[in-house]
Amino acid sequence: MSTNEPTPAEMYRDRPVYYCSGCAAVLCLQDELISKAFSGRDGRGYLMHSATNVKLGKKEDRPLLTGVHTVADVFCVGCDERVGWYYHKASDHSQKYKEGKYLLERERLIKDNAWRLEE
Ligand SMILES: [Zn+2]
């Protein structure tokens, strides 16, 4: 039996992450970034493999530039700010790669590599 299981805080400690601009909670690892070339609701968006410290809102069909997608808004659990949305389903075949991914608004994210300076 291992007593050395890392806590979430430890898992993220030495890795570059994006923070919530509202409350500085860790929202995602920079390693999880798929593309920065996306559009959010208010500006640029980042497509991410995963996110943490977030909760999903109600599922809804939303017409986006690339067709109708079934999405749910994503909220930070720390400050309840909307930080982006989650792709449940894409209607168009060419957009299927987005399913199960997160689109996070760039202006909601703070990039921080400060931990690396200690090395
Ligand atoms: Zn927050």
Describe this structure in words.
With 119 residues, this protein is mostly beta strands. The chain has a single domain, classed as Metal Binding Protein, Guanine Nucleotide Exchange Factor, Chain A. It is built from one helix and nine strands; from the N terminus they run αβββββββββ. The chain has a six-stranded antiparallel β-sheet with strand order 3-4-8-7-6-5, with no helix packed on it. A hairpin with a 5-residue loop joins strand 1 and strand 2. The protein is globular, with a radius of gyration of 15 Å. The model has no long low-confidence stretch (mean pLDDT 89). Bound molecules: zinc ion. The site of zinc ion has 8 residues, from loops.
Short description:
The chain has one helix spanning 8-13; strands spanning 17-20, 26-29, 33-39, 44-48, 54-64, 67-76, 82-90, 102-105, 109-112. By secondary structure, it is mostly beta strands.
